Amino acid sequence: MPVTHTNRKGHTYYLHSGPKRGGGTQFYFSRKKDGTLPDGIPDGYGIHEHPDGMVYLRCKADQRVTEDEIQLVRAALPNTIEKFSYLVNFKKETITIHQAELPPYEPNSFFFSPSPERIREIAMASAHYMPMMRFVLQDRKMNLFQTGRYCFRGSIDGWITVGAPGPLASLVQNYVGHLGQDSFYELF
């Protein structure tokens, strides 16, 4: 049975395999059903979905943050789904929170009246995500992370450091609550 993954937009991706240019086998996801479809995921790899909805394989050995640390960040996200949506992405030693302003719902027909759940589902599938806050592992022995937030000041768009390194639980408690608030832009 082929390996499939349905992303947040509702698109189904199929795992394909094929020869590499320099020899060996490459694996990739495509929305096409035809081609060479392996029956399983290669050892040491896992399926990953980027906040933009792209699906790909990622090497598990490169991952330095733990699943518990990722879940700690997810659990602290604000519960404001009507206004904003948050996704957590992780890569190597970084856990990044992405935020999206959901598009406004404008009914195009007087007779078309979907449920609030369906409106939210449509908005989530079309949302555009931007990185807003991240936690970067600095020292695994001491489990120290450094917080950063994205700066939107034109000439210096990019990540800025916020506060001092510390345990992830305390950083999450101190900073995640600022997402979606004016106080977010005052963090340095």
List keywords for this structure.
188 residues, mainly beta, 5-stranded antiparallel β-sheet, 15% helix
Overall description:
The structure is a single chain. It is built from three helices and ten strands. The chain has 188 residues and is mainly beta. The radius of gyration is 19 Å and the shape is globular. The protein has helices spanning 67-75, 116-126, 168-175, and strands at residues 4-6, 12-19, 25-30, 45-49, 55-59, 84-91, 94-101, 130-139, 144-151, 158-167. It has a five-stranded antiparallel beta sheet.
Name the beta content range: 35-45%
Number of strands: 10
Widest sheet: strand ordering: 6-7-8-9-10
Name the overall outline. globular
Brief summary of the model shown:
The chain is mostly beta strands and 188 residues long. The chain contains three helices and ten strands; from the N terminus they run E-E-E-E-E-H-E-E-H-E-E-E-H.
SSE map:
Layout: E1 4-6, E2 12-19, E3 25-30, E4 45-49, E5 55-59, H1 67-75, E6 84-91, E7 94-101, H2 116-126, E8 130-139, E9 144-151, E10 158-167, H3 168-175
Antiparallel strand pairs: 1-2, 2-3, 4-5, 6-7, 7-8, 8-9, 9-10
